[in-house]
Amino acid sequence: MNMNPGILLKLMNAKNTFTRNHPKFEAFLQAVFLGGNAIPEGTVIEISVTRPGEETITTNLRVQQSDLELLEELKNLSR
Questions:
Q1: Counted domains in the chain
Q2: What does pTM read for this prediction?
Q3: How far is CA 42 from CA 35, 45, 47, in A?
Q4: What is the pLDDT along the chain (79 residues), one digit of tens a residue?
Q5: Which domain holds residue 72?
Q6: Closest among 40, 42, 33 to 75, alpha carbons compared
Q7: By three-state DSSP, how is residue 18 classified?
């Protein structure tokens, strides 16, 4: 897959800005996805969003093999 270097640079800059703004989230993602205990198929991931003045909305997903393959492809893009 050929990726435009300009787009890749723009994505990397956006990722670096996100990491500076949210260091705890970056550490969380690294611990969960890159730690010694990989996420196996069947793991449930739950996500909650709380907007100011509104009720919390929560959803979850059960990790499938295709999800793991996507994450592996995304990791390979950054190498």
A1: 2
A2: 0.61
A3: 17, 9, 16
A4: 566 888 888 988 998 999 999 999 888 877 887 766 778 899 999 999 999 999 999 999 999 999 888 877 877 776 5
A5: 38-79
A6: 33
A7: helix
